[in-house]
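Complex 307.
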Amino acid sequence: MNAPLPAPARDGDFVRIVEVGPRDGLQNEKTLVATADKVELIDRLSRTGLLSIEATSFVSPKWVPQLADAAEVFAAIDRRPGTAYPVLVPNEKGYERAREVGVQEVAVFTAASEAFNQKNINAGIDESIERFRPVLERAAADGVKVRGYVSTVLGCPYQGAVPVADVVRVAKTLHALGCYEISLGDTIGVGTPHQASTMLKAVAGEVPLPALAVHFHDTYGQALANILACLEDGVRVVDSAVSGAGGCPYAKGASGNVASEDVVYLLHGLGMRTGVDLPALAETGRWLAGRLGRETGSRVGKALAAT
Ligand code: HMG
Ligand code: MG
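Predicted structure with magnesium ion bound:
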């Protein structure tokens, strides 16, 4: 018999999953999902042990009608002590709407590509950052945590290639403004592992690695490989969406996020810890897919159902 291979160097490390399905997943659904189903989704996710669940988005309902019921959803969910429920806000108006229902963590979002930003939020990069400035100031005064997203870090549907220097500049600015964590988003899922690792290392030269998260859409099936490459570089926060739901309505070609079930399976297989109950998460993914009238987009979710 072969001698067992040594355990991976990072065996036992904790990885925080930021579950973005209720926001990134549902913002891209063609048909409106009932408010009660959104609430049930979040409550089910809370019971799986996830520590961070992005609940919804306080953006313009004209731009994203799918999440027009953000306030109702947030007010109705069962907020578990110790679990964070961040929400997306694009401006002060979004911040105020979120605070009215007791939000304690928000996420601001911009991109490394000017062209994508114009389509997504009708503003250039610098202009969008000027919009966040008062949000960050008010959040600091209110004791509200702020996460920051940088989209199109490995490619843009309108501009094509995105220089790594642009990603670094935007990530560094958001961190300097007070975002405690910067999520690096491959919005259209085009990146491959070496490219992801090169980008991450460049950003980590300017922003401390523990303040970085990765956010991969899976359009080209590269997301798990990209995550593995970034884990090897030391990243310990990964965004994903139950059932592989997701996509940005303003990013041509964007498909679902990497499925949370698949990420948790990978991490547990590496000997890493997540605190997440995988069978319960997979069950939630299949439940969501059923509500959306399709099969789960998680390979692990399907495999577990068949065993
Ligand atoms: P605008 O039209 O330029 O803004 O939109 P405006 O200030 O002129 O406002 C237009 C109307 O919206 C006004 O109403 C405002 O009051 C209202 P009207 O006077 O016409 O009746 N409004 C709002 N209403 C509610 N909540 C608000 C709000 N703000 C303005 N917060 C704006 C600019 C940013 C508002 C718009 O472009 C927008 O909401 N965009 C959001 C797009 C979006 O949500 N995209 C998906 C999320 S990003 C993503 O998925 C990527 C990510 O997953 C990472 C990755 O994958 O890379 C995070
Ligand atoms: Mg996304």
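The chain has one domain: 16-306.
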